[in-house]
Amino acid sequence: MAGNNSEAVMMRNKQVILKNYINGSPKESDLYVKTDSISLKVEQGTSAVIIKNLYLSCDLYSMSRMKDHNDREGYSSDLPGSAVKGFGVGKVVESGHAELKKEDLVWGLTGWEEYSLITNPESLIKILHTDLPLSYYTGILGISGMTAWAGFYQVCSPKKGEYVFISSAFGAVGQVVGQFAKLFGCYVVGSAGSDEKVELLKNKFGFDDAFNYKEEQDLNAALKRYFPQGIDIYFENVGGKMLDAVLLNMRLRGRIAVCGMVSQYNLDHPDGVHNLMNILDKRIRMEGFVVIDYMSQYSEFLDVAVPSIREGKIDYVEDIVEGLENAAAALVELSSGKSVGKVVIVVARD
Amino acid sequence: MAGNNSEAVMMRNKQVILKNYINGSPKESDLYVKTDSISLKVEQGTSAVIIKNLYLSCDLYSMSRMKDHNDREGYSSDLPGSAVKGFGVGKVVESGHAELKKEDLVWGLTGWEEYSLITNPESLIKILHTDLPLSYYTGILGISGMTAWAGFYQVCSPKKGEYVFISSAFGAVGQVVGQFAKLFGCYVVGSAGSDEKVELLKNKFGFDDAFNYKEEQDLNAALKRYFPQGIDIYFENVGGKMLDAVLLNMRLRGRIAVCGMVSQYNLDHPDGVHNLMNILDKRIRMEGFVVIDYMSQYSEFLDVAVPSIREGKIDYVEDIVEGLENAAAALVELSSGKSVGKVVIVVARD
């Protein structure tokens, strides 16, 4: 389908634009909606595709891209004045790529806008299981589910019966890690920032236990209460004081998968972590990872995730936001930690 | 040879006794020499052996055992009033063990005394290559060499051409790691605490470069100078501020093998390490290890180490101390960082 010579169709393209690089937490005024137009025609001789965006993931990744990381290896920044970028689900409307054709459903890195020109279409993943809600590919069947799978199965090297602690356990990744760990046969405790989230972790997601870290004066004492035998696996989303307390409670040959350190992102001076001697004493392996390194195993992940979701063994909550106009407010709410469930922005339903 | 009925021979047994658990650095007065006697007879029906100690390793491990670790998992403490324990080379003088016979040369955990009763003789390793100096089995062919091998080859997963930094590089382990890394084809820089050690690292042990960390105001700047491209592998012996500076200079997918954190051992409040976000950003694997987990691979280590030493490809310096009477002073000197070369206490030469 490389190129085509038909007349270009110009379409309205509503976009969520980044005003300036953000510092710290985003404000609604950091973004604005602009209506532009886009030619639904792919330049001849290129392999680019144009997708119509259906569902967008509102997450920390997009928030991170709004910061100026231009001197930071391994990080990407959006360009002020352009549409925010993030993961989403779309439908191919025009394709110069041999393996993607019109009407194909795909997910991958796209823009917060109605239509996106994707110049590296090899990064898009075709959606084959369409019996599950398409929006799931912004989360549990997309980056956050895959991150949970790679972090737990690949980085943590779990064994049945091990003690697993997940911080920020109600986050899009944490809640899936916990459910994978339960299905695998581990004992799972999570921490979260509100009593409502703690209740859902225990009663909806099947965690063995959970606690509200904001109500704990002494995180070390809290962990000792929930893990009298110690922790084999720590799925790290938080960093700082939580990591310091966890280190004191790790068991011999424990593993720490570092997926995030959200408590540290907006600090000028990151917290000091004092208990690293435990890495030596307990022969701990601590490993940072990003999901992109594991994408070649995406179908292995689906083999676990799809049947578990179909059979209701893994639960999933979405927080649906209608329209690009509401994206900025959703992002601010996410950043405040108030969102319950995966925040999905609906651009169009088909 | 299980048991024997001959008359027990009583032998003088000079011992170096721990007076009380030490706090911080050892003083000569923490130890004293006592002359006892020992029956050179193994109780019938047991597999115990008695060895005549020849060479003892004076090292941080013995120093660590002099502290009270009784509430610390994975750590052993000596008993005040008993002989200090540590690694050494000995000759079997009596054996109840099927695979050890009189005159066999062995190395393993023994006591700072003339004769030791070893009740777990399966922990002793028979010395097969006797063309190299026996004292080497207290160090380069014993625990420190094996630690270097396991840490570098097994934990660091090195690749040819990678950039390797070793702190406390002149230590018994560090200097062997550096030489293994050079033989393997890496670029190797070490830090040490005196100009004399720096010179020896460069000119005797063949490090590509080395620096005196005490003369650096800014460790981050120093590492940037020695590793403009960054560090792939950090062999960690020091911890604290050095680790914090190294984290800033690690490359993508770097590895940190945590062998020791000597700057932290005697602190009531360990230093805070602030740059752990780099573990996430650079997908670093940081792993604590102890050599004991790798002992099943000892013969693999010898396959690398023995020919390299025979052919002069690996250099080794010993600091020989004559007699148990001088052991306490040697330990204090070691603790002060003044020793140059592996400190070996000679108890007897055969």
TrEMBL record, chains A, B:
Keywords per UniProt: Oxidoreductase
Pfam families: ADH_N_2 (PF16884), ADH_zinc_N (PF00107)
Signal peptide feature range: none
Domain spans labelled Enoyl reductase (ER): 45-345
SMART domains assigned: PKS_ER (SM00829)
GO molecular function (one): 2-alkenal reductase [NAD(P)H] activity
Record-given protein name: Enoyl reductase (ER) domain-containing protein
Organism of this sequence: Dipteronia sinensis
